[in-house]
Structures are given as structure tokens and as C-alpha cells.
Amino acid sequence: MTHADIMKAAGLTEADITGGTLAVRSPIDGAVVAHVKETDPAEMPAIIARANAAFKAWRTVPAPRRGELVRLLGEELRAAKAELGALVTLEAGKITSEGLGEVQEMIDICDFAVGLSRQIYGLTIASERPGHRMMETWHPMGTCGIISAFNFPVAVWSWNAALALVAGDPVIWKPSEKTPLTAIATHRIMERALARFGDAPEGLSQLVIGGPAIGEALVNSKDVPIISATGSTRMGGIVGPKVAARWGRPILELGGNNAMIVAPSADLDMAVRAIVFSAVGTAGQRCTTLRRLIAHHSIKDDLVAKLAKAYASLPIGDPRKEGTLIGPLVDHASRDRMMAQIAKARAEGGKVHGGEVAAGVEGGAYVSPALIEMPAQTDTVREETFAPILYVLGYETLDEAIHLQNDVPQGLSSCIFTLNMREAETFLSAAGSDCGIANVNIGPSGAEIGGAFGGEKETGGGRESGSDAWKGYMRRQTNTVNYSAQLPLAQGVKFDF
Ligand code: NAD
């Protein structure tokens, strides 16, 4: 199929892809595939006002009924999976199965949110006063602005939107300026769900297109109480304080620098499979990509040899082609950054395997993944480079390995490969990994939607997706009801008059 066929099959019209100021390139061959119209910043106040008008109606719709909208969204996504997955491949450069996997993730979170819509619950709490009942109620919070990154161009919207909509919040989505096409196609799918739902308020789900300036209009508006922003730590460092300064609620999902500790007892064959998928999958462009390998000195050389062999056999190239495992980087600037970081690591004493410009489709930025043995955890290792670079470090004691794992500014995902129960439990304990995600005998990437997703430190502290992440989209109210004929005060205070 041609690029034009893929866009058409995903429901994009000529008007969607022509006549605009935002040029969209496919990472596959670097070709400009569309010129998309950008939202005029002057329109943002009206867009936000529409969302807030929708909020007034949506917040009183019973949550299970709100869940019905998300159920329909899941149905529409199932029907459109192949076409939307192919568009993700076209616009983000993911291999076919990962493009489809991203849409599957959207379907999964819809299923989760539908169940949640019948399970939004609060506590009842024992009151110290006779004839009193204390409880906790969760209410809708208000409009949720969603700012998303290029590398999960559609799933991140659904993680937020599915929960926000059942929680009673309207959503305004600003996708990455690198991936507006998948956003337009997704929003069209949402519009089909809304049409089938029937009586949802106008403005419940809106899409705005553009760069940071459009994002900032959401970030700076007092009328957007929740800002869920996914992207680089640099972006989060700007957005977080601005939202906090106007008393909004930020949900920040920022960069990671994820590590795996490989202990002497580890099943090395399993570790190799996990390392390769998590270090080179999505061409190293996942927030949870494995970036640091902390291997026990006794097995390090063996592990590096096995990895270098596996790396040499990985098919790199056209992500649409069956069998390809490593597609392109998002653009040439990203490849330049990767090459600059490799040069820096080499200057710091790194021994580099791979990490070269690779053949692929003419015009795309293809690379072979890099494996770099480092003498120490240098400044370059402590930075997130959004490309397939895996730094290898050695360790002697588990304490040393855990120290290395934690001694970076980011705190997203982590894991240990060991068959030693003491080591595994220590890694998961309060004295172990400081990340939001810590796994045993599983790589750091490819989380399921059932768990809360997010991380600490410069990863931003936000949580999305499963567990009780829904609470981030609601406001908590403590209620005390007095059903007695007395008016006792708490803490035994007397105030008789
Ligand atoms: P980016 O920070 O360049 O852009 C992300 C989004 O923020 C885009 O929509 C962009 O337009 C917007 N933005 C940028 N500056 C802004 C500003 N000042 N105000 C408002 N909006 C602004 O990130 P990217 O290159 O698209 O994505 C890669 C990064 O995202 C990596 O660091 C990766 O680790 C991170 N990421 C994190 C998660 C997570 O869940 N933790 C998930 C995916 C990606």
C-alpha cells in the first residue's frame, strides 16, 4: 500500500492532509505525507469553554453510563485496529506488530475503564462521634488536558481519556506535532463512538493540533484543572511548575533511564531475550526502553558476547516488512543525537559495538543498535538518549548494583534477573529499586495496563492506566453525616453557649 492508501484506509480525508501549515513526515522514508491544519491559539479559550460547558452536563451522568461511551470506543477501536495500526507504523515508524500492539493497548484500557465505571468507590471510616457516619466520595474533577509524545502517538491519549471520561471529565488532546495524523484518525474513531452513544455533550472530547504554544494554552489556563503531560524531562520541567503555580493538578510522565541488573544466578538465555526486546524494540524509543545493563563481573563478558551475537542478527529496515525488528528513528535529528552520544561515551572510555548508520529505506534514519561497555556510570550514561543505546556496567555486590541502578536522575522502570530469592526481594524492598516499576525476571518495557504506570524523580511522579490511577482524574470529598440529635464536637472540644 502507498502512504496515501494507508492514510485513506485510516479514515483521513484530503481536507485532513492538505492545505495546512504543519508538515508531517513519515520516519520510514522521510517523505512529507501531509500538511495538516494547526489550531489557531486564539481559538483556545473557546475550545476550553466548550469543554467546561460539557463538564457541567457530563459530571452528572452516572458513571456506568459514562462507561458505555468508553465501551463503544473500545468496539470502534477493535473494528479499526488494522488501519490505525498501519497509520501508527507510517507516522511513528513502528514495526507492524508494535503498531497493532499500540492499538491493542487502547482497547485494553477501554475494557479496564468500562469495568472501573461500575467500581468507582470510596471508603467508609469509623467516626469517633456517636450517631455519625464518615465517608469518602469521589467526584469528577473537570477538564483534562492531555499532551502526548510522538513515540506512543495514540495509546497515551487512551490511557488518559478512557479514565478521564468514566471519571466524568471532558478531555482536550494535544498530540505531538510529529504525529497529528494518528491523532486525527483516532479522534474520528472517538466521534463514531460519540455518535452511537447519542446524548454526550458537545465538546466532551476535543483535539487541538500544534506545537508547544498550543500545549501552553492548556498548561496556563486556570480552567483546565488537570494537565496530563507525557514527554521529555525538559518539557516536564517547564510544564510542571506552570501548572503548579496556578494550582492545577499535573500528571507528569517523563523520561526514563531504565536498568536491568543481571545476577550470577540469572537464566542468561532468558535475560538475553529480555534485554534484546527491551533495548532495541521500537528502535529504543520507548520511555521504558532498557538503557543500562548492570551485570555481575562473573558473567558480564559472557553476556556481552551473547548480546553482540544477537545484535548482529537483528533485521533492521522497513518497519512494514514482515520480519523487521528494528525500524527507523523518528527523524535525522534523533540519529544525529544518538551518534553524538556514542562519540561522548567513547571519549569517556566506552567500548562500542554497533551503533552505526544502517541501510533501510532511502530517506529514513536507520541505525544498528549500540552496545557500549562503560568503565563507570558517567554523565552520558546518566542522560536519557532516545535511541537504541545500551550501556553495560559491571558490579561485584548487590548493594553496588542497586546503588548504580538508582544513581540516575530518572526513576521509571527497572528489573533484576536472578534466581536468588533474597536478591529478588531485596531489589523490590524499600532499600531496593527507587523506580515506579520494578520487575523480576522480566525486562523493564512492555507494561500491562492493569498496573499503575509512571515513575519517580525526574520521571515526574505521575501515575496513569491501571490500579487506582483513576483517582488522579477525580476530586476526593470527605463527608460526615450526623444522624443523632446531638452536636458533639471532635477531639472532645466544648463550645457551649
Ligand atoms: P517532547 O517533550 O519533545 O514532546 C512531548 C509533548 O510535549 C509534545 O506534544 C510537545 O508539543 C509538547 N511540549 C513541548 N514543550 C512544551 C511546552 N513548553 N508546553 C506545553 N507542551 C509542550 O517529547 P517527545 O520527543 O515527543 O517524546 C519522547 C520523550 O517522551 C522521551 O523523553 C520519553 O521518555 C518520554 N515519554 C515518557 C512516557 C512516560 O509515560 N513516562 C511515555 C512516552 C514518552
Automatic annotation (TrEMBL):
Name listed for the protein in its UniProt record: aldehyde dehydrogenase (NAD(+))
Pfam families per record: Aldedh (PF00171)
EC assignment: 1.2.1.3
Subunit structure: Homotetramer.
Matching CDD domains: ALDH_F7_AASADH (cd07130)
Similarity-based family: Belongs to the aldehyde dehydrogenase family.
Highest taxon of source: Bacteria
Organism of origin: Gemmobacter denitrificans
Aldehyde dehydrogenase domain: residues covered: 20-478
Active site per the UniProt annotation: E253
InterPro entries: Ald_DH/histidinol_DH (IPR016161), Ald_DH_C (IPR016163), Ald_DH_CS_GLU (IPR029510), Ald_DH_N (IPR016162), Aldehyde_DH_dom (IPR015590), ALDH7A1-like (IPR044638)
Record's keyword terms, sorted: NAD, Oxidoreductase
